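User: What would this chain look like folded?
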Amino acid sequence: MSASFYTYYKIIQGDIEVKIGYRTIKTAIGTPVSISIAQLFGLTNYVSAGILTILCIQPSRKRSFYSAWHRFLACMIASVYALVFFELLGYQPLVLGLMLILFIPTTVLFKITPGISTSSVVTLNLYSSSNITFATLIDQFLLIIVGIGTGLLLNLYMPSLDKNLKAKQQKLEHNFSVILYEYSRYLRYKDISWKGSEITESEDILQEAIRLVERDRENHLLRNKHPYRDYFRMRATQLELFKKMLPLVTNLPNTNLISEKIADFFEKLSNSVHPGNTAVIFLDELKELRKEFNQVDLPTTQEEFETRANLFQLLHEMEDYLLIKKKFKDSDVKHSKSKKQIKTGS
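Assistant: Here's the prediction, encoded as structure tokens.
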């Protein structure tokens, strides 16, 4: 099943769409399973196994392992505290409060605070027993194993996020292509119809993609690197450059030789946005553009001077855009001058 799999229900009265994800499905499966196992073993407070399972369902394998360990250790410490406090001072609400006052700082000390809620279940079970014996402790220990163990086993299955990340990559590259094309249109026709929605949409895509990448990394315990991590970070840096380019593009003069050549450059880039790395070809073209613009007569008015300054700043931002891609991965082009050997990409 893909990461985008969800079950949908419609509430007839309000026509409300409810989205049910994997954690919900795991919780719905794990809770009755853990309760059934606890009942099968004849454990008291068997319903608590279901509560422990609910508390242990996590969004990634890494978090699941850490959560299971923290909760197990917290439950063990809570059992010892409960034995000492309740048996020595009595089964009274005041004693329960005193125990928690000392127990919670202990979890902070050992950095297992996620286990507080889970251990509270065990603590209250021991409190309600009114008499902690060895058999009672064994009963609670088995309850902990069943509840936490069921949640841990369910969390071993995590759906692949590759399909989702690939879709975000394709959408992001489409947006980059549109942004570059709209820049070229403005330079040619001073077309102001574009609203810039692809820029804000790309920001949202990048935030969600980076979040998914981190979650997917946590699902692969033995893999430190992620194939999409550097990619989306690279695109995020490039997007910031797009935002810097926008005021520079709008401040260039009406159609002339300079703006036409830059428009051609932007349009060519817009048709060449893909995951590969052929930025070296465009860097060569940019170098040639600089040479051509350096041969243009020097500005004689303040307006021409400001235009020239914006032009060279825009070329600088474009160079940074391409250099970021060049450094992202090994070039797909063996010789920068062999422009016909491969479809260009940025």
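Residues 169-328 form a domain with the Four Helix Bundle (Hemerythrin (Met), subunit A) fold (CATH 1.20.120.940). If you want, I can go into more detail on any region.
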